[in-house]
Write a structure and sequence with these properties.
With about 500 residues, this protein is α+β, with helices and mostly antiparallel strands. The protein has one domain (about 1-495): Cytochrome P450 (Cytochrome p450). It is about 50% helix and about 5% strand. It contains 20 helices and 9 strands. The protein has helices at about 1-20, 40-45, 50-60, 80-85, 100-105, 115-135, 140-165, 170-185, 195-210, 210-215, 220-225, 230-235, 240-260, 270-280, 290-320, 320-335, 350-360, 395-400, 400-405, 445-460, and strands at about 65, 75-80, 165, 370, 375-380, 380-385, 390-395, 460-465, 490-495. The chain has a 4-stranded mixed β-sheet. Strands 3-9-8 form a 3-stranded antiparallel β-sheet. Strands 5-6 form a two-stranded antiparallel ribbon. A hairpin with a 2-residue loop joins strand 5 (about 375-380) and strand 6 (about 380-385). Helix 9 (about 195-210) packs across helix 15 (about 290-320). It is globular and about 85 Å long. The protein binds protoporphyrin IX containing FE. Protoporphyrin IX containing FE (HEM) binds next to helix 15 and helix 20.
């Protein structure tokens, strides 16, 4: 009897708690006492969390709030104005952490993406500075990217010859992982190296294993400890996949440690090891596990996103053959017989505009990475409690802000050009790399790689749909990022 009364009292207390919102909390739906609003989110859109959250904001306004579990406030931010306000509010530059995310990095909070505070600042600054010195996003890495493009074009030719068409799924991933690993570990794998294929599988399976909302469900640490498979099933996050990747990176770090020279660092691992030996105090944030975490983050954040952007751009151009031809005419006029180079970029406004348009429509990262309120703060006139998870809906800036884009559904490169078509118009309504303190760390490399790969492939090949088949779908596949569904195309050499 006493137990029943106690259970009823607890349920009653939870019910009361669920119905109380902190004062001036953003408007939003109420959920159930224990689980908050989680069970209802997928009803708004079963497939895409960014569309579910957009529906919420259509009803409640650009800043909407609800509870994920009994005590986790969740703030959804939509539309240009509110998104910018959130991204430039430093109080919202934290990252939520949970046991599942920490599993990726040995149960500790390490790396860049899911870290915050002074440790994140130190690691992010270090990575930015040294990747830049190693040629990240500069013309000095152009040769490296070009070698990958040459290998890729050969592979595409071989595929077309052997099969009469080319399956464009996963082809670019291999090149992207290779570029990242060359900067980080100083080594280029052959495209048929099984170790490379294995790295790729791990990253791909991880990114497709979860979606944004499920990954943020606040599951207590003990659930993961005592019911690992059940918890992974619920969250979708397959962090266990990382063990072989961690082992692979650790082995390379140990090899580097044996033969590195203090005066001539060859790659990111060498400069990091140099920093570790400079700071040997126990409270230094530079240690081997941290380095593994940082490298894993480069892979998760860098490979799928860039290769997905290239794949989507080609897919949109398959759907828009006139635009493909116009790009090729511009490339022929500006680059002559050579392949496009970074130095050609300012003279290729139409090509640049088409690539921007493909990024706007494909929305590889429609919800950025979840942010967290580091302290009590204000957003859109509402009070945001410390610890709130904040989702920044980039999709709604790119796709839905009808007063700015007017016809957001249409693929129209001209919207990024001056009326005479000669100048590129840059706008802060296009935020594929997000903005503010948490903006993408790999943006310079990603921009160059996206441009060089897509422009080079279009200079060398024409891409056509398979005859007598419907055009491949533009509908993205869901996951931690959006990706294109693999598609086949007729790829014919130009000239
Ligand atoms: C087209 C390709 C890419 C796109 C669209 C993209 C987009 C993004 C976005 C939207 C974020 C989240 C920003 C936020 O939370 O507000 C992000 C974070 C990040 N990106 Fe990228 N990214 C790309 C390529 C890369 C590459 C090549 C790297 C390689 C190192 C990289 C490394 C990172 C890292 C480490 C973060 C976390 C930054 C932090 O939390 O401080 N990204 N990216």
């Amino acid at each position: 009897m006493i137990t029943e009364v106690l259970v009823l009292l607890v349920l009653f207390a939870l019910l009361i708690k669920a119905s109380i919102r902190p004062s001036n909390f953003p408007p939003g739906p109420r959920g159930l006492p224990l689980v908050g609003y989680i069970p209802f989110l997928s009803k708004l859109d079963p497939e895409y969390p960014h569309l579910a959250l957009k529906k919420l904001s259509d009803h409640y306004g650009p800043v909407a709030g609800f509870y994920l579990g009994p005590s986790q406030p969740f703030i959804s931010v939509c539309g240009y104005r509110a998104v910018r306000e959130a991204l430039y509010n430093e109080d919202l530059a934290g990252r939520p952490s949970n046991a599942a995310r920490r599993e990726r990095t040995f149960g500790q909070r390490l790396g860049v993406i899911h870290n915050d505070g002074p440790e994140w600042q130190e690691q992010r600054r270090f990575a930015l500075r040294h990747l830049r010195d190693l040629g990240f996003g500069r013309t000095s890495s152009e040769g490296l990217i070009r070698e990958e493009i040459e290998d890729l074009t050969q592979e595409i030719r071989a595929h077309q010859l052997a099969h009469g068409s080319v399956d464009l799924k996963g082809l670019f991933n291999l090149s992207l992982i290779n570029i990242l690993w060359a900067l980080v570990g100083g080594e280029r794998f052959r495209r048929d190296d099984t170790r490379l294929a294995h790295l790729l599988d791990i990253v791909d399976n991880f990114v497709r294993s979860a979606d944004f909302t499920r990954a943020n469900i606040p599951v207590p640490d003990f659930c993961l400890r005592y019911f690992p498979s059940l918890t992974r099933k619920l969250l979708g996050l397959r962090n266990d996949l990382f063990t072989p990747l961690q082992d692979f990176i650790r082995e390379r770090i140990r090899e580097h440690a044996k033969d590195r020279s203090e005066d001539h660092p060859r790659d990111f691992i060498d400069v990091y090891l140099q920093e570790m030996s400079k700071r040997q105090s126990t409270d230094s944030s530079f240690h081997e596990n941290q380095l593994i975490g940082v490298i894993i983050d480069f892979f998760i954040a860098g490979a799928e996103t860039t290769s997905g952007s290239i794949g989507f751009a080609l897919l949109y151009l398959l759907h828009n053959p006139d635009i493909q031809r116009q790009i090729q005419t511009e490339l022929d006029q500006v680059c002559g017989d050579s392949l496009p180079q970074l130095a050609h970029r300012p003279s290729l406004p139409y090509t640049e505009a088409a690539l921007m348009e493909a990024q706007r429509l494909s929305n590889i990262t429609p919800l950025a990475v979840a942010h967290k309120a580091l302290r009590d703060t204000q957003l859109g006139g509402y009070s945001i409690p410390r610890g709130s998870i904040v989702t920044v809906n980039l999709f709604t800036v790119h796709h839905d802000d009808e007063s700015f884009w007017q016809d957001p559904e249409i693929f129209r490169p001209e919207r990024h050009l001056s009326p005479d078509g000669r100048k590129l118009i840059k706008t802060d309504h296009l935020l594929p790399f997000s903005a503010g303190k948490r903006a993408c760390l790999g943006e310079p490399l990603a921009r160059n790689t996206y441009f060089l790969f897509t422009a080079s492939l279009l200079k060398v090949f024409e891409f056509h749909p398979l005859p007598d088949r419907p055009l491949p779908t533009l509908k993205p596949k869901n996951g931690l990022t959006l990706s294109y569904d693999g598609f086949e195309a007729m790829v014919t050499p130009r000239s």
